[in-house]
Amino acid sequence: MAMPLGGILLLFLVLLAAAAAGGGGGVWAFSSSSSSSSYSRIGEQPLSLIGIHRATVGIDAAASVQASPRLLGVKGEDTAWVTVDFAAPHASDGDWIGVFSPSNFNASTCPGPSGSDSGPVICSAPIKYQLANYSSDYGKTGKGTLKFQLINQRQDFSFALFTGGLSNPKLIAVSNKIAFANPKAPVYPRLAQGKSWNEMTVTWTSGYDIKEAYPFVEWGMKWSPPTRTAAGTVTFDRESLCGEPARTVGWRDPGFIHTAFLTDLWPNKEYYYKIGHMLPDGKIVWGKFYSFKAPPFPGQKSLQRVVIFGDMGKAERDGSNEYSNYQPGSLNTTDTLIKDLDNIDIVFHIGDITYANGYISQWDQFTQQVEPITARVPYMIASGNHERDWPNSGSFFNGTDSGGECGVLAETMYYTPTENRANYWYKTDYGMFRFCVADSEHDWREGTEQYAFIESCLATVDRKKQPWLVFIAHRVLGYSSGFFYGAGGAFAEPTARQSLQRLWQRHRVDLAFYGHVHNYERTCPVYDGRCASPERSRYSGAVGGTIHAVVGGGGSHLSNFTAEAPPWSVYREMDYGFVKLTAFNYTSLLYEYRRSSDGEVHDSFTVHREYRDVLACVADSCPPTIPPAT
């Protein structure tokens, strides 16, 4: 029996909401680009569409691929544009060009015994791809030219021409090899605050093992003699990961990740730094020259500007990988932040960082994309489902959204001031702010280790000196009228508010931020489902409730809302953007939601509050008083 139109529409909306909420499922979206990609899955990692394990080899002498230039980064650049000329005797819409690194990607590189007839002939996915008919005359002439942007990823590259579409690829030609002048060079520094306010960490990636070269950071203030601080070095192998594709077709050697701790910084002073590696003969391989501003001390009254967003992912500036259907707003968010970087002091990317989903090469791609930001201001991350979730791996949710990464990539590629890297919760102080960053992929309920951390983080801040108290998590533990959460009736993760709202209220949390739902929404100051104030743009007086904001529009495919806005929902928008907080002093805070497309403000409010307002009695929370003397 045919399904009624209303039923079809409802099924489509449910599937769309499930994909848009950040889960592992996807929805088919049609495109006119070619018959071979007449569909792509919204919310699906584009590299997962390639059936590389089913690939066959049929090298055709009449087909060819040529890449130029052969040597990249001769002046120390870590990105380069490459021209790829190709030809096929029987051009079709299903033809595509894949970029492979290392350049040797045949069966000899597969894990396990070699020479087996039963194994795949190609066992590693490309790091990116483009459809051959992106070159306009290819369908007519069988010849085409494409441009690819490559980044230094520690290995050489080759380009392969396939027929048969993405799902059943057949290799017919392979290009010459190309490489960066120094594939091992130190690249893509990532700043993060350390465990103390006057400590900055610098993390970067290179091809140098500690046995080959000694990693360090040379740093200091202007006009002062520089200091050299040694860095620690870590890496991981396939066996460190939890499942496919991370351990199979998505695997790529991650190189070596180095972290140095720059300590005893002077508050708000500008520091200059370079990453480097000293070779055994004393020669130094240098990275680029950067600078950063040291954090203010806790309670310091100065202008402090914070950016918060989630679910950004990455995209390709050369148009590869059909990211227009996957993370279409990612580059806009990145570029808008770069343009305003002189007016940003610290960034929080609150989960669903790269959406690599087990394709390890994509972490390098992401660190390169955000390097202009992360090299200059602290870039603090939170754990999301696409970083952590994998069955029987210790995550609270047993989904497969991490693609087998199970937190290893996020924990290794970025530093966070956690006490235990496997438990991705931490606190960090920035001047007049205290940030309590929860890990929504681990149990937060009362009686758990994380609940005790949240309570301690909220309770131990001195609100006289740090009046602005902010709670952060990836999944919505507060309020969202996103279609997925609304359909469940809880408008949040089940039991989340029941577990945490009394803590937020008792400790007068000003703001709570979440990702996971790919849109923007802001509530009134709310407690137990009821607004504590009718105001929309100017708040003052006692903290009668917490303002919750969903900022999951960093770049990934957008999520829809429920048809009707709940009473606590003040502003909601299905667009890409981020929030910027500006603390002027102990009593005045500006909140702005800015769209990624233009950086303009589309929602804002101000808070004006005295310390006595933090102490005032509010619903279900009244500080104890000293009885009068008798």
From TrEMBL:
Stretches assigned to the Purple acid phosphatase Fn3-like domain: 65-182
GO molecular function annotation: acid phosphatase activity; metal ion binding
Domain Purple acid phosphatase C-terminal: 545-604
Domain Purple acid phosphatase N-terminal positions: 189-293
Compartments, as annotated in UniProt: Secreted
Organism field: Oryza sativa subsp. japonica
Protein name: Purple acid phosphatase
Keywords for this protein: Glycoprotein, Hydrolase, Secreted, Signal
EC annotation from Swiss-Prot or TrEMBL: 3.1.3.2
Gene Ontology CC entries for this record: extracellular region
Pfam family, one: Metallophos_C
Catalytic activities: a phosphate monoester + H2O = an alcohol + phosphate
